[in-house]
Specification:
It contains twelve helices and four strands; from the N terminus they run αααααββββααααααα. The chain is mostly helical. A two-stranded antiparallel ribbon has the order 1-2.
Length: 368
Amino acid sequence: MRGQRSLLLGPARLCLRLLLLLGYRRRCPPLLRGLVQRWRYGKVCLRSLLYNSFGGSDTAVDAAFEPIYWLVDNVIRWCGVVFVVLVIVLTSSIVAIAYLCVLPLILQTYSVPRLCWHFFYSHWNLILIVFHYYQAITTPPGYPPQGRNDTTTVSICKKCINPKPARTHHCSICNRCVLKMDHHCRILLLSPLPETSSSSSRALHSYGSWDLFREAYAAIEKMKQLDKNKLQAVANQTYHQTPPPTFSFRERVTHKSLVYLWFLCSSVALALGALTVWHAVLISRGETSIERHINKKERQRLQAKGRVFRNHYNYGCLDNWKVFLGVDTGRHWLTRVLLPSSHLPHGNGMSWDPPPWVTAHSASVMAV
């Protein structure tokens, strides 16, 4: 088999060498000389694409999945608008159902102290959800300065070819580097926190008032059965008894809205609750979701050498939360966490010196 291949490739190589030799001579036709130059240029381009002194398995995977990344980035760029509109529509529907259907029921069943607490707690959640979600979709993420040489950088971005400060990563949606890029900024975490709390309280309220929601579901099943009996009676023309009482339009809408509210709030509480718990664990460790993967590889690499990896940005669980939430003093827990606040985070996003009130920690390996 190998001999047959050499017999087939031998004449082709000989012809190619003859063409290359003729290409060096001046009496070679311009067309043939141009073909030879294009061939040599193509070989150089092919070698430049395949050769990379910093290459590895990660580089090969990134290159192989680059078309998929491009497709996902362009789809997500348009889906972002759809997701924002969907969240606004679903949140507005929950608020409308709460005022039109739930409020009349709790006014009839709740005591005055419980009603006051429910009214205060629900509106506090609503204000925080609307405020933090608006801040999350309108606040710029923060970009490294362009054209400055005095910025402390740790590497060069391979996509936008710009200096990258520590904890900076490239965002394919923005098509530029983002300071401390992650899926849990302070505003984005504070947005699902009250929504999760509100959904959880609504789900718990639904569980505590299970009879109310069970009656609503049973009423819907009864509506279906009545409609089915009416169709059968009209088809047989044998229905001579007194017809059962029918449900009014308002009763139908109320029962269906209560069931919709219960299922929607329960699903949102599960989804956002799991997301909030996961990011709470990352914040307690002083890591972003991207840094978790980087630190995991670095931890394995140092462990193989008998060394211990320590995260340079981990100040301890409590101090990590204080840095993340921007809590400098005790009253900031009220003014910056429990109440809506648009305060800026600690630092400038390029240098990561610990705040002066953070307990001093020993020097450790910096995760880039």
